[in-house]
Amino acid sequence: MEEHQGPVVSSGLIYGLDDRPPLRETLFAALQHLLAIFVAIITPPLIISGALKLDLETTGYLVSMALFASGISTFIQCRRIGFIGCGLLCIQGTSFSFIGPIIAAGLTGGLSAIFGACMAAASVEMFISRLLKYTRRIITPLVSGIVVTLIGMSLIRVGITACGGGAAAQADGTFGSLRHVGLAGLVLVLIIFFNRSSNRYLRMSSIVIGLAIGYIVAWCLGMVDFASIPDYGGLNVPMPFRYGLSFDISSIIALALIYLITAIEAYGDITANSLISGEPVEGEKFVRRASGGIFADGFNSMIAACLNSFPNSIFAQNNGMIQLTGVASRYVGYYIAAMLIILGLFPAVGLVFSLMPEPVLGGATLLMFGTVAAAGIRIIASQDIDRKATLVVALSFSFGLSVELVPDILCQLPETLRTIFSSGITTGGLTAILANLLIRIKN
């Protein structure tokens, strides 16, 4: 391992983008990044599996493949292979934004429909990366803020259902019991407690600590049965297209809209990462980097679908980690990628998390989804909200939340349209784009 070639004083970093820190410091920085992203990567497959009532083996495999696919995606982003990737310390993981449409697709056509739609719709983000300057005029910060807020608001229902015990508790009549709600509340309180700590390591680990304590308490209450899993050994060998592929046009359209928004979010994350890493945020070099990063976002999601995993996106929280550690070296990303791939190969990791009781997961995700909604509100608030912008926001939330709160309003529509608009994210997002174009057209 080569030694670091000198600190980057101008940007306040200890190690710059192309520096190679000593092995000990590289591993320490990689572990901190891993701690910040691990729960976020495994949560979407756990939520989707719970909503689709998948068995423990399938759930464990999906969790493992989420880690494995995130490792490959992270390596491509950091390494930049040809024109694919941004070449920054940019971490990718399973995205929360797609959960709603994915569950809708799964309820309609199963896992094959999910992976088919994820693969087909990913081409939208790859196409957008080539037309970046034009799409940013359509998907404005106001539109992005509305969609991100709707994503958070829509997912809160998923989180609170998990807090009550999930689909299994609804079936056996124990939904909302004191044991379920109390366990979810314990996890939520623990996360808030550790997140408010002045110790940065406790703050970074707050979600992991909350889930771990909640898991232990659930085990003590007899809610975790390790005997239900016969074997923890062996390796999880990735099997492309294990669950098959099928293509449903309504599911593809619903996911395509999220890919559209994800492309704009990826642009913002790459800009922030470049700034923190002391790299240019304008000019030809930056445009190539942003375009390559957004293309990789879609390309990696396509690879993830081949590997039986869900769409990947750039994780914004790692930008804060770069500031915290002062390490922007993309070589650290190689170690993070290797750790994720290794974790994904061992079935024990996925199986242990597949046994996590839904109230434990719900206590954490309820807060995480609320944070997503709050982030969207911050984006909206950062804009000039005049009379026309107010109309755009009002229309988008009205249409988006109406189909979430009263889904029967769509019952007379043809099945294809019903599937497309059943997601409040899709309905509100399309409304935001059209309203922004029509109402603010003179601007």
UniProtKB/TrEMBL annotation:
The chain crosses the membrane at residues 27-52, 58-76, 83-107, 113-132, 139-158, 178-195, 207-229, 249-267, 331-353, 359-377, 389-407, 419-439. It is found in: Cell membrane. Its main location: membrane. This is Purine permease. Keywords: Cell membrane, Membrane, Transmembrane, Transmembrane helix, Transport. It comes from Phocaeicola intestinalis. Belongs to the nucleobase:cation symporter-2 (NCS2) (TC 2.A.40) family. InterPro entries: NCS2 (IPR006043), UacT-like (IPR017588), Xan_ur_permease (IPR006042).
